[in-house]
């Protein structure tokens, strides 16, 4: 019996979702191996964010990414708490919490809807409000899409279908790989914060986890790049901001 929780609901398709390829400039050389955490000025913690007790993986993944965004921008690790993660999880899970804060729904979240909330409403992390400028869908079958997202945009916000084989691999600190015949346990949100020749690397359940490219291809059902607010002001941003703004204006009419 595993002691970790899932919580990503079935992938939702919205034809208005921006595609990463539509707003990327010509890519600079992308290294074959890269890990965000070893290229930051501070050592970033990897908390559980209560994902062993609640199915809050969508917000836990957001928290891990926010830690890395702000470590790069502020040159310090902001103190995101379990309570902040859980309150956002519960708030997005039930609109009635505006009037009845004692309600604590634990039914998981739709990743796409949560990304829209992150962009439109922001969330409280480390006692301050943070939101994102935009997000764009990756093509999971295009590994370069993922590598560019990690190397240039600070990580991939990813949904996977979790096979039963991961529990033993995870507990034994083994790479996640495809095991024929494994049943699907449910959906899960992870932060992809690196990649190498073996495959992507992710953060989940308070660990850094290696997976194989075969596992990625088999079980990834949605993946997104996040354009953090700071990316808008970077002279060397990989994002064509003018084109992005035009698309955002069109889809929000």
Q: Concise description?
A:
The chain has 253 residues and is an alpha+beta fold. Helix content is 31%, strand content 21%. The chain has eight helices and nine strands.
Describe this protein's structure:
With 253 residues, the protein is an alpha+beta fold. The mean pLDDT is 90. It has helices spanning 20-23, 57-74, 82-93, 111-120, 143-153, 166-171, 213-219, 241-251, and strands spanning 34-35, 123-125, 128-130, 132-137, 156-163, 184-195, 200-204, 207-210, 220-228. The strands form 2 sheets. Strands 1, 4, 5, 6, 7, 8 and 9 form a 7-stranded antiparallel sheet that branches. The chain has a two-stranded antiparallel sheet with strand order 2-3. The N and C termini lie far apart (48 Å). A hairpin with a 2-residue loop joins strand 7 (200-204) and strand 8. It is globular. It has one domain: Alpha-Beta Complex (Cathepsin B, Chain A). Helix 2 (57-74) crosses helix 3. Helices cover 31% and strands 21% of the residues.
Strand content: 15-25%
* Structural class by sheet pairing and helices: alpha+beta
Helix content: 25-40%
| Distance between the first and last residues' Cα | 48 Å
């Amino acid at each position: 019996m595993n002691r970790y929780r899932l919580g990503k609901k079935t992938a939702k398709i919205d034809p208005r979702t921006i595609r990463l390829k539509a707003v990327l400039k010509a890519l600079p050389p992308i290294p074959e191996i890269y890990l965000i955490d070893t290229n930051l000025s501070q050592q970033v913690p990897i908390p559980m964010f209560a994902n062993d007790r609640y199915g809050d993986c969508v917000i836990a993944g957001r928290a891990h990414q926010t830690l890395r965004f702000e470590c790069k921008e502020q040159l310090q690790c902001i103190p995101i708490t379990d309570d902040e993660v859980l309150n956002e999880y519960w708030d997005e899970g039930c609109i009635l919490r505006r009037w009845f804060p004692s309600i604590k729904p634990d039914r998981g979240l739709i990743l796409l809807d949560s990304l829209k909330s992150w962009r439109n409403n922001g969330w409280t992390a480390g006692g301050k409000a943070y939101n994102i400028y935009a997000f764009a869908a990756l093509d999971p079958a295009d590994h370069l899409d993922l590598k560019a997202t990690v190397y240039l945009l600070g990580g991939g916000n990813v949904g996977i279908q979790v096979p039963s084989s991961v529990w033993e691999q995870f507990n034994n600190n083994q790479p996640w790989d495809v095991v024929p015949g494994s049943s699907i346990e449910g959906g899960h949100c992870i932060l992809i914060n690196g990649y190498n020749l073996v495959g992507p690397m992710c953060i989940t359940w308070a660990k850094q986890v290696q997976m194989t490219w075969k596992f990625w291809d088999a079980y990834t059902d949605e993946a997104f790049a996040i354009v953090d607010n700071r990316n808008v002001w970077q002279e060397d941003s990989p994002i064509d901001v003018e084109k992005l703004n035009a698309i955002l204006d069109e889809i929000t009419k």
